[in-house]
Design goal:
This protein is of the alpha/beta class. Among the domains are: 429-535, GMP Synthetase, Chain A, domain 3 (2-Layer Sandwich); 541-601, Non-ribosomal Peptide Synthetase Peptidyl Carrier Protein, Chain A (Orthogonal Bundle); 627-849, Glycerol-3-phosphate (1)-acyltransferase (3-Layer(aba) Sandwich), CATH 3.40.1130.10.
Length: 852
């Protein structure tokens, strides 16, 4: 525990705190379907090993190294490894463009780049490269003990964070150890007062959705959580449904995100109530909760809290301005919302809101150590020890002194209680011909409240009477009356704010920066080129579907084709390809799409409508039971197996188990794949397995049948309904089954399989997708999804072959003679994640067709 007089010379002192926390989990990230965990002590060891790797490669103190990739423990280890050596980190967003990356390389003369496979924008840089995903394996041979450090002081440059600023030319903000510590130490001092209470909530878990390439992402991903001994979960998808599922399943305490993602979560939640016909009731509860306490709001919206999980309580928002209606929405639901205001030049935070107090729509009070004032034009001007000394030059020059004021470029006001209110970017302010200021953020907040508007962007427009606001709208419904939308907005706006010009943006999203800020510069450029009432951005969902289909299938399609093109027959997308397309659309547009919407008959035009609607056809949920994992069900299952299933199976089949020696050295969960002949295949395989694997097995079953048992059709009679529910409970109890749908929904099924593996269960799948019909004497073709599952689970795959059952089934014979039926276990196979699913399927078919 820290005391209230905290002093640190450099950031590296935090590594000593890491070491003291030992085996406590620090980072949790997802690789494929599996979760990868890294402890505090392991992170320190990897960082030191990375530092030694840099030394071996001749990287010296003050050299620059580019760091570009998805959030992960490896990214953090590379960052700390550089700091240990006194090497300057140059973090870049994983979606950076090639031109931007080249410009940064030319300016910094970087000696090395750490990059992940997803960072396509840096693939052409002509400098030595280390794959981030393989970092821990690469450095594992180095000594993890503390080495002699270079002379690092508080004035040592830690990183140069590049931003495009108001032009397309990258500017590198120089941040020293002292700059970053100036913001961290006040936070650490405040947190130390409450550490005695942390034990009751340990571990506090943060879900970080902000890139580590941004200073705010670093603060909430690397620095602040470790002050509480917290876990940090990284999640690289911005799909709202996936975020909420991750929060609930992993008992997250607080989510770190940017305002646009919080808006997406709000829209997702509102759509859920709309789809259930509960929209009006939900709005009434929101209105009634205005004057309620935090706990009363929590109780009113307990269904929402159950959705997020009972441990979740706060959103930590930064990187852009959070609109007051969105902040108020989540507060009324009983969640805490912390909003930070700052910029890269101030090493993240300038002000922060209080999570439980009414901040009056402000962006909080100024952080300790800052001096803040407003100039004659209302621009926010600050100075203090956290403010950068300037921008990077090849000679390491600085552009300002520490005592000089920094003009932020933001316009704001200060109220009587000292709260700072953000009004907008100075360069974006629209000065009308009457000399009055119009702040685009005020107009956007009003427009975004309209139910017909998904998102808006207000830019400066040079009209005949001077500068005026122009509203660019993305509509929820393409058939919405835009004039009515503008009319409703103008009724809420002052005379000088009136919107007289507008455009409809055809793409489902605006061009966005890494922090999900709208790039108004690009919007204005396209609007300027096309002075029409509707804007063709060449970035519509239609074109994106065509481009993704070409990438997935490797075939070429016309860039502007017929909206009637079918995903299956015309774009050649099989079931796995459709799921890949669906995932790409969800990530790009931050929406939830039910897999039932994506069938072989779905057209490109249908996809466009689904994107604009934000939610596709909602299918009945498949049952994914968790109760079957735990006592007393596990004990009941064992008793039933040995008293009923095992004796009957042995008597009827007189089976012979072969290849058990292939399982003798397996000490981890396994993916078993088997041919499927009869209803009793599950019992046969269970009976043949060694006891240590038998009782830790989850079995995939036809999802549609399980769903029908648990959710019978409305026309089903009472007795039949009761019988089906009993069948579901018995089958789940006896065999620990979970649904694997045939047509859609197998993304969730794969995720459940991964969760089972995380709990230490092996998984059994019948990849033919159906039982062999009577008379068939050979293996059917395997479904393509098994290739993806085998690649993403990253566990040994054991082929299983049931022999003798084809003949029994053909004869309609229920009792086998001795030696007629056998269960053969093949040798375990491991597939790299880089293996193509089709190649995996081909290899598995070959193994299962051969004699095991």
């Amino acid at each position: 525990m820290q005391n209230n007089s905290i002093t640190r010379e450099t950031l590296l002192s935090y590594l000593d705190d890491y070491t003291r926390r030992g085996s406590d989990i620090l980072f949790v990230s997802q690789r494929g379907l599996r979760l990868v965990r890294c402890s505090y002590a392991s992170l320190v060891s990897y960082a030191r090993q990375t530092a030694r790797e840099l030394t071996v490669r001749g990287i010296q103190e003050s050299d620059t190294v580019i760091l570009c990739g998805e959030n992960s423990a490896e990214w953090v280890a590379a960052f700390w490894g550089c700091l240990i050596c006194g090497v300057v980190v140059v973090p870049l967003d994983k979606d950076t463009t090639i031109d931007f990356a080249r410009s940064v390389q030319e300016q910094t003369r970087a000696k090395l780049i750490f990059a992940s496979s997803s960072a396509a924008g840096v693939s052409d840089l002509d400098i030595p490269r280390i794959e981030i995903d393989e970092l821990f394996h690469l450095v594992s041979s180095h000594d993890p003990r503390r080495a002699e450090l270079p002379s690092i002081t508080s004035s040592t440059l830690a990183e140069v964070v590049f931003t495009s600023g108001t032009t397309s030319t990258p500017k590198g903000v120089m941040l020293t150890h002292a700059n970053l510590l100036a913001n961290l130490l006040p936070i650490e001092k405040e947190i130390s007062k409450y550490l005695k209470w942390e034990r009751f909530f340990h571990p506090i878990r943060f879900l970080n959705l902000v890139p580590l390439s941004h200073v705010f992402g670093q603060f909430m991903g690397m620095f602040v959580p470790q002050l509480l001994g917290s876990e940090v979960h990284f999640h690289n998808s911005l799909n709202p449904a996936e975020i909420v599922e991750r929060v609930r399943r992993h008992r997250i305490s607080a989510t770190v995100l940017v305002p646009r993602v919080l808006d997406s979560l709000r829209q997702w939640l509102e759509r859920r109530y709309e789809c259930r016909g509960e929209e009006e009731e939900f709005k009434q509860k929101l209105s009634a909760s205005v004057d309620r306490s935090f706990w009363q709001r929590w109780w009113i919206f307990r269904r929402v809290h159950r959705l997020f999980g009972w441990k979740f309580w706060a959103f930590v928002c930064g990187g852009a301005t959070l609109e007051a209606p969105t902040e108020e929405f989540w507060r009324r639901l009983g969640f805490a919302v912390l909003q930070g205001y700052g910029m890269t030049e101030t090493a993240s935070l300038i002000s922060v809101t209080h999570p439980f107090k009414d901040n009056g729509g402000s962006i909080g009070k100024v952080m300790p150590g800052y001096e803040l004032k407003l100039d004659e034009e209302g621009e926010i001007v600050v100075r203090g020890p956290s403010v950068s000394s300037g921008y990077w030059t090849a000679k390491g020059e600085v552009s300002r002194e520490n005592h000089q004021w920094l003009h932020t470029g933001d316009v704001g006001t200060l109220d009587e209680s000292g709260h700072l209110h953000f009004k907008g970017r100075k360069k974006d302010i629209i000065v009308t011909s009457a000399g009055l200021n119009v702040y685009p953020e005020d107009l956007e907040a009003v427009l975004n409240e309209d139910s017909d508007v998904r998102s808006s962007c207000v830019i400066k427009w040079s009209g005949t009477q001077g500068d005026e606001p122009l509203a660019v709208l993305i509509l929820n419904n393409p058939r919405a009356n835009v004039e009515r939308v503008i009319e409703r907005a103008n009724k809420k706006l002052a005379e000088h704010q009136q919107i007289r010009h507008w455009r409809v943006w055809e793409s489902p999203t605006f061009p966005l920066a890494g922090t999900q800020k709208v790039l108004k510069r690009e919007v204005a450029a396209k609007i300027g080129m096309l002075r029409t009432e509707r804007v063709d951005t060449n970035d519509s969902g239609f074109n994106f579907v065509i481009e993704e289909a070409a990438r997935i299938t490797g075939q070429q399609f016309p860039s502007a084709g017929d909206p009637a093109l079918k995903l299956s027959t015309d774009l050649k997308l099989d079931s796995l390809g459709r799921v890949e397309l669906l995932s790409a659309l969800e990530d790009r547009y931050q929406i939830e799409i039910d897999e039932a919407s994506f069938t072989a008959a779905t057209s490109v035009g249908d996809v466009e409508q689904i994107i604009r609607g934000g939610v596709g056809k909602v299918s009945a949920a498949y049952p994914y039971p968790t109760w079957s994992h735990y006592f007393p069900v596990t004990w009941i299952r064992a008793i039933l197996f040995y008293t009923i299933i095992f004796p009957i199976t042995r008597i009827m089949s007189r089976l012979k188990a072969e290849g058990l020696e292939n399982l003798s050295e397996l000490n981890e969960p396994v993916l078993f794949i088997s041919n499927h002949v009869t209803l009793g295949d599950h019992a046969l395989i269970l009976s043949a397995l060694p006891m240590r694997l038998r009782h830790r097995l989850a079995i995939a079953m036809e999802g549609e049948r399980l769903r029908e048992w648990l959710h019978p059709r409305d026309s089903t009679g009472m007795l039949m309904r009761l019988r089906m529910i009993v069948e579901y409970v018995l089958v789940t109890t006896f065999f620990h089954v979970f649904p694997l749908p045939k047509k859609s929904g197998f993304r969730r099924s794969f995720a459940y399989a991964a969760e089972s593996v995380e709990r230490g269960f092996s998984v059994l799948v019948f990849p033919e997708g159906r039982r062999a019909p009577r008379g068939q004497m050979h293996l059917s073709r395997l479904k393509s999804g098994i290739g993806l599952l085998a690649s993403e689970l990253q566990v040994p795959v054991v082929p299983v072959r049931l022999e003798g059952l084809y003949e029994l089934k053909r004869r309609r014979q229920y009792f086998a003679t001795k030696g007629m039926v056998s269960v053969k276990f093949g040798k375990p196979i491991r597939f790299e994640r880089s293996c193509e699913p089709a190649a995996i399927v081909e290899e598995l078919e070959r193994r299962m067709s051969d004699k095991l």
